């Protein structure tokens, strides 16, 4: 009877055994299907990342030709070679300065653009350099930092500001003619041996400038008039195209030197001064009678040509400035996105409690933006460790060694003529080891974000 009840499917019947269907993942996909879709990505990852890393580690253990095993000698040479040590030092400077500078500028821009009417347009302008490649940016700043103020925008600005507060020299290449009474008297000045006499014109001939290179539209020189109780004279270019004439005398066709400062010196003190006119003549008061005439060095000082931006001392800071011009917009956009997500009630509450704007920024805004600032800082730190093309293009050959970084040294060692692939691979592995701690910090941060 019990068997008949079981067959009838009564209350005492056992539940049917579960079917042996394949187990699906949380997202409803079989594991082998997920693995099949991931396979192309894994193949590319292995071919483009894992294999190059493994081959670089293996190649770094061999000599430049790859035929002899040298162990860790290539790694030891990194810290023995002066050029590579400069690259290590400069890389450390880049990592310490460039990300912090870009992040700070991005934070300032993001906060200030919230308070201006044309904030969106300003953000667009600041972010625009991100659309330019490193190659193009390098070419742009190579021209910006050109030493010649007539070509380099940076020195054009610097020289304009300098000349606004300091008188520029009139004729930087001029010098007294041979046989002239003018002799060097220190500080770039020239002083006459003879003393000036009222009523007797003094002739101060100069050479060293081509007649067609005299600034402005010079007039023909004129001999100063004689007589009277004042000291007169002429400053002119004692040379003319085609030659001819008498040395030390004002000849027809010789050009006047306008604006030359002339001082009357007696006992080491300046008793009178004036400047030459358009025809080269000058007039000093009676007090100059019996004094020596001096042309101060300010008339002949070399023109100020600005700052040597790409010299050994400033080449690295100058290139960091070019990098900040490109990447400050990137930092600004990310920080502005984080700023938009801040609860404005917190800011208003701080203001109601009596905090000023600086206190609100420092004690409320910045702490709330800390996760975003960390993302920007870590991203830029990884980016600057592999900086190469900007330095390679901007730094001129004489100062390229002073601007050298590890990525550039890797290129120069392996492909820049040295052909030492062992040393280049060792530098590549060193760069990987330097990036790993930063990546580890970034991964930890991401895991903490997921746990919140």
From TrEMBL:
Major site of localization recorded for this protein: membrane
Organism whose genome encodes this protein: Streptomyces aureus
Subcellular location: Cell membrane
Lineage: Bacteria, Bacillati, Actinomycetota, Actinomycetes, Kitasatosporales
Keywords carried by this UniProt record: Cell membrane, Membrane, Transmembrane, Transmembrane helix, Transport
Domain ABC transmembrane type-1 as annotated: residue spans: 88-442
Transmembrane parts of this sequence: 32-54, 92-112, 124-145, 322-342, 368-395, 421-443
Protein's name according to its UniProt entry: Carbohydrate ABC transporter permease
One Pfam family in the UniProt entry: BPD_transp_1
InterPro entries noted in UniProt: Ig-like_fold, MetI-like, MetI-like_sf, UgpAE/MalFG_permease
Family statement: Belongs to the binding-protein-dependent transport system permease family.
Membrane topology: Multi-pass membrane protein
Region feature (Disordered): 1-23
Superkingdom of origin: Bacteria
């Amino acid at each position: 009877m019990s068997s008949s009840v079981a067959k009838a499917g009564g209350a005492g019947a056992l539940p049917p055994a579960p079917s042996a269907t394949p187990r699906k993942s949380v997202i409803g996909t079989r594991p082998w299907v997920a693995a099949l879709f991931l396979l192309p990505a894994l193949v590319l990852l292995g071919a483009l990342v894992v294999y190059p890393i493994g081959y670089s580690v293996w190649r770094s253990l061999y000599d430049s030709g790859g035929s002899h095993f040298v162990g860790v000698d290539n790694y030891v040479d990194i810290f023995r070679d002066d050029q590579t040590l400069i690259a290590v030092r400069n890389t450390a400077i880049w990592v310490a300065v460039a990300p912090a500078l870009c992040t700070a500028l991005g934070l300032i821009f993001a906060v200030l653009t919230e308070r201006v009417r044309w904030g969106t347009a300003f953000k667009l302008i600041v972010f625009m350099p991100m659309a330019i490649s490193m190659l193009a940016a390098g070419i742009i700043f190579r021209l910006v930092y050109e030493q010649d103020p007539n070509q380099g925008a940076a020195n054009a600005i610097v020289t304009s500001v300098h000349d606004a507060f300091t008188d520029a020299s009139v004729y930087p290449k001029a010098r007294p003619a041979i046989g002239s009474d003018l002799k060097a008297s220190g500080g770039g000045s020239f002083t006459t041996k003879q003393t000036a006499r009222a009523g007797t014109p003094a002739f101060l001939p100069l050479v060293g400038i081509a007649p067609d290179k005299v600034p402005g539209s010079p007039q023909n020189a004129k001999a100063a008039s004689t007589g009277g109780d004042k000291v007169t004279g002429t400053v002119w270019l004692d040379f003319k195209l085609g030659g001819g004439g008498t040395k030390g005398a004002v000849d027809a066709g010789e050009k006047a030197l306008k604006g030359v400062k002339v001082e009357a010196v007696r006992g080491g003190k300046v008793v009178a001064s004036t400047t030459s006119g358009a025809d080269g003549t000058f007039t000093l008061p009676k007090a100059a009678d019996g004094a020596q005439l001096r042309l101060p060095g300010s008339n002949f000082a070399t023109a100020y040509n600005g700052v040597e931006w790409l010299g050994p001392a400033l080449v690295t800071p100058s290139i960091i400035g070019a990098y900040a011009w490109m990447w400050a917009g990137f930092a600004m956009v990310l920080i502005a996105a984080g700023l938009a997500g801040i609860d404005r009630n917190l800011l208003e509450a701080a203001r109601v409690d009596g905090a000023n704007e600086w206190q609100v920024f420092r004690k409320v805004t910045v702490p709330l933006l800390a996760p975003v600032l960390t993302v920007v800082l870590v991203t830029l730190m990884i980016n600057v460790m592999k900086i190469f093309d900007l330095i390679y293009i901007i730094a001129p050959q004489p100062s390229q060694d002073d601007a050298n970084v590890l990525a550039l040294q890797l290129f120069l060692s392996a492909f820049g003529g040295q052909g030492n692939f062992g040393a280049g691979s060792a530098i590549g592995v060193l760069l990987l080891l330097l990036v790993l701690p930063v990546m580890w910090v970034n991964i930890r941060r991401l895991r903490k974000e997921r746990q919140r």
